[in-house]
Specification:
25% strand; 5 helices; 178 residues; single chain; alpha+beta
Length: 178
């Protein structure tokens, strides 16, 4: 507000912002995960997320999950831990992880389903900025299978699992339980 010593620069912004942990990832759906299962995940997650003050968005299309989760650091950390053991997805790639004081990007739980072309664009962008070899390999596999139209026919047991530092969705998980 003021640039003089002793006066906060933007006191109003500090009151509107909170410390948020952000976790963004993508993964491949395991065999048997369909629209009905995703609807069940969303329903359970909405209830859990309210109690945990977690918000975000989940995108599901062509057998691929993309999720943005934000909330209190302790709660997001617990959610990530539950996602790591969830059998409903694999080839998990962490796209972003940060903790900062800011306003929420997704103040309400939402879910959007997109087509393969849209998911591919998100994955291609993530591949362009990926540095971890495991993440690059997982993203390359996902894009390759997506391009070949094979994602819906792949079984998690027939493909080498690679968590690439990510996590799998959990039936009790918050804002982001694919």
């Amino acid at each position: 507000m003021f640039d003089e010593f002793g006066f906060p620069r933007d006191a109003d912004a500090d009151h509107a912002s909170t410390l948020l942990d952000t976790f963004v990832y993508c993964s491949r759906a395991a065999e048997g995960v369909d629209d009905a299962e995703v609807d069940r995940i969303i329903e359970r997650s909405q209830r859990s997320n309210v109690a945990r003050d977690i918000t975000g968005v989940l995108v599901f299309g062509s057998g691929v999950f993309f999720q943005w989760i934000e909330g209190p650091p302790t709660q997001v950390e617990k959610l990530i831990a539950s996602l790591r053991g969830d059998h409903r997805h694999y080839d998990i790639v962490t796209l972003d992880r940060s903790v900062e004081k800011r306003e929420r990007l997704y103040p309400n739980w939402e879910m959007e389903r997109v087509g393969a072309d849209d998911i591919r664009a998100v994955l291609q962008e993530a591949l362009g900025s990926a540095e971890d070899e495991n993440n690059i390999a997982a993203l390359t596999r996902i894009i390759g299978h997506l391009d070949a139209g094979q994602l819906d026919t792949l079984h998690s047991s027939s493909t080498k699992r690679n968590d690439g530092g990510g996590a799998a969705p959990n039936s009790t998980g918050p804002a982001a339980q694919p």
